[in-house]
Amino acid sequence: MATTRRRFLTGSLGVAALALAGCGRQSPDAPGASGSDASSETTFVFGNAAAAPTLDPSLTSNLETSRIAAQILEPLVKADQDTGKPIPGLATDWTVSDDGLTYTFTLRQGVTFHDGTKLTADAVCRNFQRWSENTKTEQVNQTAYQAIFRSTKADGTSRPSIYRSCTAPSERTVKLSISTPYPSIVKALTQPAFGIGAPSAFDDNSYASHPVGTGPFELSDWDGQTAELSRFSGYWGEAAHISKLKFVTVSSTQKRYYEILMGNIDAYDQIGIDDFVNLARRGYQIQQRDPYSVAYVSMNQQSSALSDVKVRRAAAHAITRSEIANTYYPDGTKVANDFVPELFKVSGSDTQSAYRQDQGLAKKLLEESEYNGEELQFFYPTDVSLAYVQSPEAVFAKIAGDLTSVGFNIKPVPITWSDDYLTKINESNPQRAFALTGYMGAFRDPDDFLSPLFRQENPQFGFSNSELFEQVRKASSMSDGEDRNDLYKKINESVADLMPAVPLAFPISAVALNSRVLSYPLTATGVANFARIELRDQK
User: How far apart are CA 302 and CA 508, in angstroms?
Assistant: First the structure.
């Protein structure tokens, strides 16, 4: 899912918006405004809000990994910049069998990997085989392959997958077979996690730190904090406008702000709330993304207190979600009443009342429950800015205060993001009651949000409900249309009734760009095509 719209600061930031519109972008005919071309030597530096734990996007759902890897690896199909629909990538076209179980892709001719080897159907199938083999290794955090091909159990171990085979009838023909209809699978394959790598790079076990693909950039160096990429001279498509690309890790919101002011970076993600006006007044461009993530508080029913639905509902009514959305997120962020962004129009009819703020009701429910005031652990991340929660410490403090005010006894459990926060909230642990987290969408379909969370037992929530799980599975097997949308509305209502988590917000997030940037291909998923960036000068 992506968007090309540029949304500038409005409302209370009107003066800043005028400064932004007047100073942040010149006419192409203005002095110094000529864009770079494929023959120029230009470097673009992007400030990531967190370090990428690996450069292999098939092993993690981490945004920073996907952002870097998407410049190196290309999938069979890409997402259209405006609609999010699948368009040709490494495959020029594809067909689907009548039973919806076989997808046949025709590969693009004349494509080579960065190591000089040729893109063939056999190479593509080696990637599918590798992804399938990787699922046999126990891991807590679900990968894109495991989510799409349904190949993992609640405990992280493998289960029978809907993936059946990938075969190569000819050098340019790939046949992908699945066991259960999944009409959204082509949309799902647009994710960076399904970028095709060179099989020759799989053999020495260095792929996670040095992926080799067919993309417009190839990896030059990565030390775990900084990734340096160079324009690939043998790229099959339009050459990248910039010759060198660098991703640096700057975890502090304030430090990212100062780094762009000092000219050390050209752009950065996750602008601090207090920095919007200052950046605009200084003439920096700010591009805001459409909301395509959801922030929420998970409630672990393995915790004895939270096994009581009255306790979970008390927590939902206690949290001042509108104040959180208005205070800790950029303008335009909306309160979430379910787990699927508004653009899909599948909100349930009564989900808003299920999560509404009513601290009087929260106190009453807590008094009627079996909760006896025991200490409840609340996990939250530190030293990071995320697309779904830019200021985790501040948001946690607000929520903890809301819960305490109605009678909860909260024990803060801060965990540094780099200390594998996601694993700690996704593993089975009856001591963990609450956790502040969220989900970032990767392709344009409601299933992208609901299947990873509610298709099966999930240790993050610690509950089981076969009826809900079956509803989610059924919806994923249906084609787009009114019947599918109606089922998703029922699913959102079921989730609100069961209350495994409290949705907080559908956040607006933004990228700051300095005056060198003529054009930046903004995407709602946060994974932009950096080859299309155009700069005014050389660096």
Answer: 32
Distance CA 312, CA 297 (A): 11
**Could you please report the per-residue DSSP string of 375-406?**
EEEEEEEES---SS-S-HHHHHHHHHHHHHHT
Distance CA 374, CA 369 (A): 13
- Locate 382 and state its tokens: 């530190």
Distance CA 84, CA 189 (A): 12
Q: From CA 171, how far away is CA 193, in angstroms rounded?
A: 23
Please provide the average confidence, as pLDDT, over all residues in the chain. Answer: 89
Distance separating alpha carbons of residues 14 and 366, to the nearest angstrom: 44
**H helices within 159-225, ranges in order?**
185-188
Q: Give dist(CA 8, CA 280) in Å, integer.
A: 9
Q: What is the mean pLDDT of residues 387-399?
A: 95
Type of residue at 377: Q
What digits encode the pLDDT tens for the residues 196-217? 999 999 987 899 999 999 999 9
Distance CA 470, CA 456 (A): 8
CA 462 – CA 116 distance, rounded (Å): 48
Vertex 38: Cα angle to 35 and 39 (nearest 5): 100
Judge contact between 426 and 460, C-beta under 8 A: yes
pLDDT of residue 82: 78
| Number of other CB atoms surrounding residue 34 within 10 Å | 15
**Among candidate residues 425, 415, 436, 426, the one with its CA nearest the CA of residue 138:** 426
Interior angle at CA 404, CA 400 and CA 410, nearest 5: 60
For 292-315, the pLDDT digits (tens) are 999 999 999 999 999 999 999 999
pLDDT score for 349: 80
Name the packing angle between helices 392-405 and 309-318 (round to 10°).
120
- 462 phi-psi bin (left φ>0, alpha ψ -120 to 50, beta other): left
Specify the amino acid at residue 416: T
Backbone phi and psi for residue 456, each to the nearest 5 degrees, phi listed first? -160, 180
Say how far apart CA 296 and CA 500 lie, in whole Å: 10
